[in-house]
Every structure is written in structure tokens, then in C-alpha cells.
Design a protein that fits this description.
The complex is a heterodimer of chains A (about 110) and B (about 110).
Chain A: E1 5-7, E2 10-13, E3 19-24, E4 31-38, E5 42-50, E6 53-57, E7 64-68, E8 74-78, E9 87-94, E10 104-105, E11 109-113
Parallel strand pairs in A: 2-11
Antiparallel strand pairs in A: 1-3, 3-8, 4-5, 4-9, 5-6, 7-8, 9-10, 9-11
Chain B: E1 4-5, E2 10-14, E3 19-25, E4 32-38, E5 45-51, E6 56-59, E7 62-67, E8 72-77, E9 86-93, E10 102-103, E11 107-112
Parallel strand pairs in B: 2-11
Antiparallel strand pairs in B: 1-3, 3-8, 4-5, 4-9, 6-7, 7-8, 9-10, 9-11
Classes of the chains: A mainly beta (about 110), B mainly beta (about 110).
Chain lengths: ~110, ~110
């Protein structure tokens, strides 16, 4: 079974631009979560989508948004990029939400904002 | 506000010896804890978990200990192998309600052959 895939793997943008990242979950997984990883903060939860609905949202500004499609694929968008948005963005999928349902992570998209 | 803390950014251990990675949390609502392992250029992979009704869970060379009163957990790897060299993240979540994971900042483990 194919794992979680994320595209693109690397991205360079400049301040003020916007960016869209894509995540394809493992087949049969309907929940997709997004995390931001930075050196000082570790992994921080952005949001989780399940059945095309945002189920939960972390403490990030409104510039960060996401959506999920009927095939469970998910995208996240960051508008008006800031230097501090440079990070590794990780997507994780699981069958359904639930603490005991293992999350499987993709390799991440490395975003650099210049 | 970091609710899960890993105070040791790095740890070096000789092959064959025990590796002990520590994690502290502040939120009393957390009752399910996980350890993830991350290699460079890969996403984190699940290693082992423990529920708050237990104080120990073992899986092969990996054992997680939970001390609820101290809000502390630790991961023991015995014996350590060079392939264990990676970044280890501790994570916590409530079992009910919104159960997104709260991660620590990670500990880089280096196992020296």
C-alpha cells in the first residue's frame, strides 16, 4: 500500500506570496492532519480534516487554511507569506480520527520564504 | 506555550548500552502518549504508545514508562543499535474530544558503534 505523499517536496517563495501544498493520504484513510515543524518549536498542529470538514484547528493565524476533497486528498494554503513561515510542513493520515488510530506521516514539504 | 517538553536536544550512547529519552508534559488532560522516530528526509514514524491507565508498555527493545504524578515519561531502548540513530519525538493527546497530537521539540539520538 502506498504511503502518504506530499507535493512538492521543496518550495522557495518570497515574502508576500502565497503557497499551496498538497497531500494524498493512504488509500482508505479519511482523516488528514497538517503539522508545521520548525527547529525551535518541534511539530505544531495546524488542522485536521475528516470527510471534507475541518474537525480541529491549532493556534495559527488565519493566513493558514486548508481543505479536503471528496477523495480525501487535502491541500493547505498559506497566504501573505512571512519569513517565519519557513518550515517543514508535514501531513499525516489515519483511517478516522481517534487517539488510538495511528497517524502515518508523509515526508513533508520544505518551504523556504526569502 | 510548549505543553510537551523534551529538555535534551541530543543524546549520544555507545552501541549495546541503554538509551533513555525523557519527556515532560504540563496539561492534565493528556492521557495518551506516543513516541515517534524521525530519520532525515522522512516523516516521523510511530514507535510505541502508552495510555494513562498503565505505567509501562514494552515492545521488543523499546519500553515506555509513564509517571502521571510527575507528568513525566521516558523511552528506554535496550540494547541501542546504530540504526536507532534518529530524532525522537514525544507526543501527547487527550483520548476524548479533539485528539490532535502535541509534540515535544525532539531529541537527537546518536548511537556510536
Amino acid at each position: 500500500k502506498a504511503g502518504v505523499t506530499q507535493t512538492p517536496r521543496y518550495l522557495i517563495k518570497t515574502r508576500g506570496q502565497q503557497v499551496t501544498l498538497s497531500c494524498s493520504p493512504i488509500s482508505g484513510h479519511r482523516s488528514v492532519s497538517w503539522y508545521q515543524q520548525t527547529p525551535g518549536q518541534g511539530l505544531q498542529f495546524l488542522f485536521e480534516y475528516f470527510s471534507e470538514t475541518q474537525r480541529n484547528k491549532g493556534n495559527f493565524p488565519g493566513r493558514f487554511s486548508g481543505r479536503q476533497f471528496s477523495n480525501s486528498r487535502s491541500e493547505m494554503n498559506v497566504s501573505t507569506l512571512e519569513l517565519g513561515d519557513s518550515a517543514l510542513y508535514l501531513c499525516a493520515s489515519r483511517t478516522i480520527p481517534g487517539a488510538h488510530n495511528e497517524q502515518f506521516f508523509g515526508p513533508g514539504t520544505r518551504l523556504t520564504v526569502l | 506555550d510548549q505543553q510537551v517538553k523534551q529538555n535534551s536536544p541530543s543524546l549520544s550512547v555507545q552501541e549495546g548500552r541503554i538509551s533513555i529519552l525523557n519527556c515532560d508534559y504540563t496539561n492534565s488532560m493528556f492521557d495518551y502518549f506516543l513516541w515517534y522516530k524521525k530519520y532525515p528526509a522522512e516523516g516521523p514514524t510511530f514507535l510505541i504508545s502508552i495510555s494513562s491507565i498503565k505505567d509501562k508498555n514494552e515492545d521488543g527493545r523499546f519500553t515506555v514508562f509513564l509517571n502521571k504524578s510527575a507528568k513525566h515519561l521516558s523511552l528506554h531502548i535496550v540494547p541501542s543499535q546504530p540504526g536507532d540513530s534518529a530524532v525522537y519525538f514525544c507526543a501527547a493527546t487527550p483520548q476524548t474530544g479533539a485528539n490532535n497530537l502535541f509534540f515535544g521539540t525532539g531529541t537527537r539520538l546518536t548511537v556510536i558503534p
